[in-house]
Amino acid sequence: MHLSLQYTGFWNEECDDTIIELSKLSIADQTHEVTVLDNFNDTSNRIATAKDYVLRRCNQTEPLPFDECYPDSQLKNCHKIGEGVYGEVFLWRARDGRARVLKIIPIAGNLKVNGECQKDFHEIISEIVIAMELSALRAPIAEIERHFDEGKDVEALNLQAIENATDAFNEVLAVRCVYGSYPSRLLDLWDLYDECKGSENDNPAILPVDQQYIVLELANAGQDLESYQFNNAEQAHALFLQVAYGLAVAEEAYQFEHRDLHWGNILIAPTEQKWATFVIRGRVVRVGRAGVRGAIIDYSLSRVALRLAPGDSAALYNDLAADDSLFDALGDYQFTVYRLMRDKLGNDWKNFEPYTNILWLHYTVDKMITALRYKRTNTKIHKHYIDKLKGIKSRILDYGSAAQFVLTDNEL
């Protein structure tokens, strides 16, 4: 069997580390720097704009009417499940029967939403690109797992073209750029959520009729780590390994740092699948799922480096240096991690420092020991895996990256 994948291990000595902060770059300007928009012109050969690039990622040439993409008649099996400063989140079962999460983000408008200025197109590029690239790392996993299910030996696989692969990141099903009035069905669901749970967001009905939006259609990956109830610590340990290996693969593929992996950004769903499969540095690794499937989400603070052409690369990242509020919060260990990241990076957020992933893994294992909900805490197996988690917590900060941790730690 021959497998091929366009996403190979990213970093090598021949790559020129050309760093671009897209959130501040005027992409329409011609400079000597390499950007993700280089060599991309529209049909009139004008210089590409950030909006052009977003539309290309959406497989569109122009924004589409909101009510044509998501007519009320197709939103019957839908309800609001969450929100953030960025916008609204709905769970929707489409006509194909698959449950999808709709993350709806107002963009490029003048009206403040939820107390914040709307992102412009150049500010949303990084989240879209990172989500799509990490999702694409799953491409070969299903075929590899079919190979194992058929009882074939891994040596029979031709992994020459696959350096890194994982399905630990949330699957992106579609990205759309739309405009127009918010669908009335979604407004009704917003009101229902507000009545039942209380919303901290502005009602989307305030948005103008020509408002533009980015809609991310994502796979439904389950409940977040904070709310999920595990059978015992064996499941938590299995989830931890899935997250650690996922981060390791992304480090190798894209010099990835999540930079905000709190327990709201790890989702869990029950599964009957026995194994999670990873490819890291061309080597297949399988980790027991113990009945849970993990997914990493939300890349609004994340950093990646993308190869654009031979010898050229660009980093996409969010410059957090001026965001004092992120570093001033006190209380949960989460807020300490932000300050530890800043110290490790010297507040220079363009740099690749995979130790930030180690900090978040330390945070995660600490939550698993001290704060998660377990059904059966008096069993031997629970106590055994709590001890394993405590062991990981005691030594993980000695590693420099998630990749180094999973590839060299002998007690996982």
The CATH topology of the domain at 223-408: Transferase(Phosphotransferase), domain 1
- Weakly predicted, low-confidence segments: 1-44
Mean pLDDT equals 89
User: What is the CATH first-level class name of the domain at 223-408?
Assistant: Mainly Alpha
Number of helical regions: 11
How many distinct beta strands? Answer: 15
Write down the overall geometry: globular
Protein name: non-specific serine/threonine protein kinase
GO molecular function, one term: histone H3T3 kinase activity
Catalytic activity: L-seryl-[protein] + ATP = O-phospho-L-seryl-[protein] + ADP + H(+); L-threonyl-[protein] + ATP = O-phospho-L-threonyl-[protein] + ADP + H(+)
EC number: 2.7.11.1
Provide a brief overview of the structure.
The chain is of the alpha+beta class and 412 residues long. It is built from eleven helices and 15 strands. The strands form five sheets. The protein has a six-stranded mixed beta sheet, with helices on both faces.
Written description of the protein model:
The chain has 412 residues and is an alpha+beta fold. The chain has a domain at 223-408: Transferase(Phosphotransferase) domain 1 (Transferase(Phosphotransferase), domain 1). It has helices spanning 50-57, 66-69, 121-136, 141-149, 184-196, 233-254, 324-328, 333-345, 355-370, 380-395, 402-408; strands spanning 64-65, 78-84, 87-93, 99-107, 172-179, 212-219, 223-224, 229-230, 266-270, 275-280, 283-288, 292-296, 304-309, 312-316, 373-374. The chain has a six-stranded mixed sheet with strand order 1-5-6-4-3-2, sandwiched between helices. A three-stranded antiparallel sheet has the order 7-9-12, with helices on one face. It has a two-stranded parallel sheet with strand order 8-15. Strand 10 and strand 11 form a beta hairpin. Helix 6 (233-254) runs antiparallel to helix 9 (355-370), helix 6 crosses helix 11 (402-408) and helix 8 (333-345) packs antiparallel against helix 9. The longest helix has 22 residues, at 233-254. The two termini are 31 Å apart. Mean pLDDT is 89; it is low at 1-44. GO terms for molecular function: ATP binding; histone H3T3 kinase activity. Residues 75-412 form the Protein kinase domain.
